[in-house]
Amino acid sequence: MTQTQITSFAHRHVALLAAAIVVLALTAPAQAQDATEGARLYRDTCADCHGRQGEDKALGQSRPLRTLDAETVRETLIARRADPRSMQDRIKAGLTDREVEALAAYVAAFPSP
Ligand code: HEC
């Protein structure tokens, strides 16, 4: 390698590293924010019926949410939002896509029994 080749090699790698740092800096807070949002939403909107750790059968009817995976929670919330039939569906119907994702991740992280 000539000096010029070495310099341009180093520059390219510095640029890549800088790009990677920018990507990390942008995505990490977004993920942290989603986790906080999921926790806050769950506590304020869902915990009364489903239990703080997803341990209750809501109104004696649902499965404990801590036994469900993220996919099931996401699909349930999206389906109820599209066709709300009950009081509890109407509570779910106001959720945005982002809130659904945050809740699905939060609920799936509950320790299952
Ligand atoms: C007023 C009480 C109430 C609130 C508040 C409530 N739910 Fe429910 N939820 C229920 C009941 C009752 C059922 C079972 C009957 C049904 O499926 O609608 C249920 C069912 C579910 C199911 C499907 C469970 C299963 O057995 O398949 C999920 C997932 C769910 N709720 C998530 C949530 C989330 C997330 C929130 C907060 C945004 C929430 N619920 C708020 C009462 C509630």
Describe the structure.
By secondary structure, the chain is mainly α. The chain has a single domain (3-108), classed as Cytochrome Bc1 Complex, Chain D, domain 2 (Orthogonal Bundle). Helices cover 71% and strands 0% of the residues. The chain has four helices and no strands. It has helices spanning 3-50, 70-82, 87-93, 97-108. Helix 1 (3-50) crosses helix 4 (97-108), helix 2 packs across helix 3 and helix 2 (70-82) packs antiparallel against helix 4 (97-108). The longest helix is centred in the first third of the chain and has 48 residues, at 3-50. The termini are far apart. The structure holds heme C. Heme C binds next to helix 1, helix 2 and helix 3.
- Give the helices and strands as they follow along the chain: HHHH
Write down the overall mean pLDDT.
89
Helix content: over 70%
Largest sheet: none
Name the CATH class.
Answer: Mainly Alpha
Q: What's the helix count?
A: 4
> So, the CATH homologous superfamily?
Cytochrome c-like domain
Rg over CA atoms: 21 Å
Could you say how many structural domains there are in total?
1
Q: Could you please say which CATH topology applies here?
A: Cytochrome Bc1 Complex, Chain D, domain 2
Poorly predicted runs: none
Distance between the termini: 60 Å
Strand content: under 5%
In short:
Helices cover about 70% and strands about 0% of the residues. It is mainly alpha-helical and about 110 residues long.
Key descriptive features of the protein:
binds heme C, single chain, 4 helices, Cytochrome Bc1 Complex, Chain D, domain 2, 113 residues, mainly alpha, 71% helix
